[in-house]
What we know:
- The structure is a single chain.
- By secondary structure, this protein is mostly beta strands.
- It has one domain (4-101): Rieske Iron-sulfur Protein, CATH 2.102.10.
- It contains no helices and 11 strands.
- A 4-stranded antiparallel beta sheet has the order 2-3-4-9, with no helix packed on it. A 4-stranded antiparallel beta sheet has the order 5-6-7-8, with no helix packed on it.
- Strand 7 and strand 8 (77-79) form a beta hairpin.
- It is globular and about 40 Å long.
- It starts with a strand and ends with a strand.
- The relative contact order is 0.25.
- Bound molecules: FE2/S2 (inorganic) cluster.
Amino acid sequence: QDNWVDALAAEDLPSDDVMGLVVAGRDIAIYTVGAAVYATDNICTHGQARLCDGFLEGHEIECPLHQGKFDVRSGQPTCEPVSEALRSYPVKVEGRRVYLRID
Ligand code: FES
């Protein structure tokens, strides 16, 4: 329940964009939408594409390979051809650091 992992400095977050980052050995996509920060697995559930190479619009990330989409808040698929959710991770910003909870 307490597996918060220090992921990056808040000042290194992108601005209304996505970035890829390895956290605790996992390939993670970090998203910012306004002041909110979200995190999911970075590899698409449909194929071998990294979502950090895709396009973030509002709360949706579009996969660069076949243009499937996910809601970055939940990891749920929102557009075909993706049908399987991405794992999403709780995020907290404390002081100047960003933490992800990885159980
Ligand atoms: Fe992402 Fe196909 S690999 S939609």
